[in-house]
Design a protein that fits this description.
The protein is mainly alpha-helical. It is built from 4 helices and no strands.
Length: 146
């Protein structure tokens, strides 16, 4: 059980670190682009920003899924890489079909992968909303200035 918790904790920390590092890069870019993003026309820029944010979120989730899948595969928990990716995706997105399961002695990792996915989605979506809110506030404030 300690082995499962240790592996799961390491994967969660690595996944969150990757998301945090990518957030740092995105925030740096947003700070640099803030002037452009707050000038007219607003609607096309918000559209592009929203699409870019969605791609960013999917990219970070994909990295997290692959991190878990490669670990499952390296530990020999599944016969194929496809099966590892499938289980990782179903767990990380909290879909949890249950048609592919972890062997006894490693079942805690399924719940930890789901918790990691839930946390990752929450953090990324919260950051996306916050970034869009700041951009929109900047647009409104700039529009009010003569």
């Amino acid at each position: 059980m300690l082995r499962e918790i240790s592996v799961g904790t390491g994967l969660i920390l690595a996944s969150i670190a990757i998301a945090g590092f990518s957030l740092w890069i995105v925030e740096t870019w947003l700070r640099r682009a803030h002037g452009w993003l707050t000038t007219e026309p607003h609607a096309p820029k918000l559209f592009v920003l929203l699409c870019a944010a969605a791609v960013w979120i999917i990219s970070i989730v994909t990295v997290g899924v692959w991190l878990w899948a490669l670990t499952f595969w390296a530990l020999g928990l599944f016969q194929t890489l496809e099966e590892s990716v499938y289980f990782s995706l179903a767990s990380f997105t909290t879909l949890g079909y249950g048609d592919v399961i972890l062997p006894k002695g490693w079942r805690l990792l399924g719940g930890m992968a789901a918790a990691n996915g839930f946390l990752t989605f929450g953090i990324l979506i919260a950051m996306m909303v916050e970034a869009l809110r700041h951009i929109r506030i900047g647009q409104v404030e700039r529009s009010r200035k003569p």
